[in-house]
Specification:
It is a peripheral membrane protein. It is found in: Cytoplasm; Cell membrane. An essential GTPase that binds both GDP and GTP, with rapid nucleotide exchange. Plays a role in 16S rRNA processing and 30S ribosomal subunit biogenesis and possibly also in cell cycle regulation and energy metabolism. It holds the Pfam family KH_2. By secondary structure, the chain is of the alpha/beta class. It has 2 domains: about 15-175, Rossmann fold (3-Layer(aba) Sandwich); about 195-300, GMP Synthetase, Chain A, domain 3 (2-Layer Sandwich). The chain contains 10 helices and 9 strands. A 6-stranded mixed sheet has the order 2-3-1-4-5-6, with helices on both faces. It has a 3-stranded mixed sheet with strand order 7-8-9. It is globular, with a radius of gyration of 20 Å. Residues about 1-10, about 45-50 and about 75-80 have low confidence and may be disordered. It binds guanosine-5'-triphosphate. The site of guanosine-5'-triphosphate has 23 residues, from helix 1.
């Protein structure tokens, strides 16, 4: 990471930790467990994370900036090529790489692909074997053995992000290896997502919870306006973009039932987040091929 040249020797340490792992292994849940509050959205659908969402964890004089990377994967369309470029760039610029695997599923081809990508990472590589709550002791040992045979990583930590098991040991290690540096974020910050993007992610989380097959990944949510003019009430105007009329039909649902359920779930999350009553104005629109549309991707805030 580039740091201010000539800065006085600081007593603080800080660094970027980039998470890499197959979709759904629990990267977002690990970020939340380390940061200690909800920053990254969590769902049981693969590829929930299209943007690098950072959590910031500060302990005394050490700070971790966690980058929740999308799964390393082969480029399929413009969006995934962009994701891939971003993964490579983040790895080149990070202080630590954290590879996450699913203990229950064991080591698969996707993990080997990522392990190979990380073998040349120019930084320490730490491995977390997640979801050990799903296994008994003997099977945890088998899983750890298989992971150590991957030959990647200086340290391997069995964890359950959901239960919090092993997270302290993992976090302690991460805190111990970041380099001397001034803090990269204010110690009170937990995430650098813009407020609008964060609200859009909370809405998208409700879409992911309620839709299946290709629909969840075809949906992008954009918050257009947040109106706080009224005391105790926030009005959020948002669009859910889909790629086809049939996806729109599914998202709206018979008689608008699906979009109403999504809206109700999202409103509760937004109210919890904003601490006011929320009126959510959520409109579904079709934009054909938005994944391949550079101009729209730019407008939505994806990096090239
Ligand atoms: N049993 C169990 N489930 C977990 C654990 N950690 C995460 N999960 C679940 O696994 C699913 C995926 O978790 P995420 O944190 O969204 O996974 P991710 O790797 O960030 O997913 P993508 O962003 O899609 O790549 C969710 O249903 C989580 O609740 C764990 O330690 N134990």
């Amino acid at each position: 990471m580039a740091r201010a040249e000539g800065a006085a020797v600081s007593a603080t340490r800080a660094g970027f930790v980039a998470l890499a792992g197959r979709p759904n292994v629990g990267k977002s849940t690990i970020v939340n467990a380390i940061v200690g509050q909800k920053v990254a959205i969590v769902s049981d659908k693969p590829q929930t994370t299209r943007r690098a969402i950072r959590g910031v964890a500060t302990r005394d004089d050490v700070q971790l900036v966690l980058t929740d990377l999308p799964g390393v994967q082969k480029p399929l369309d413009t969006l995934t090529e962009r994701m891939q470029r971003r993964v490579e760039r983040e790895l080149a610029e990070t202080d630590v790489a954290l590879m996450v695997l699913n203990a229950e599923q064991g080591v698969g081809p996707g993990d080997r692909f990522i392990a190979r990508a990380l073998q040349n990472a120019p930084c320490p590589v730490v491995v977390a074997v997640n979801k050990v709550d799903r296994l008994d002791r003997a099977h945890i040992i088998v899983a750890l053995q298989a992971v150590s045979e991957l030959g990647v990583g200086d340290e391997i930590f069995p964890v359950s992000a959901r239960k919090g098991t092993g997270i302290d040991a993992l976090a302690d290690h991460l805190f111990s290896i970041v380099p001397e540096s001034p803090f990269l974020f204010d110690a009170a910050d937990h995430s650098d997502l813009s407020p609008y993007v964060h609200l859009a992610e909370l809405i998208r989380e409700q879409v992911l919870r309620r839709t299946f097959q290709e629909v969840p990944h075809a949906v992008e949510v954009v918050v257009d306006e947040v109106d706080t003019a009224r005391e105790g009430l926030t009005i959020v105007h948002a669009h859910a973009w889909v790629e086809t009329e049939s996806q729109k039909g599914i998202l709206v649902g018979a008689g608008g039932r699906m979009i109403r359920q999504i809206g109700t779930g999202a409103r509760k999350e937004l109210q919890r987040e904003l601490g006011t009553k929320v009126h959510l104005d959520l409109i579904v629109r079709v934009r054909r091929g938005w994944r391949g549309d550079d101009a729209l991707l730019d407008r939505l805030g994806f990096d090239a």
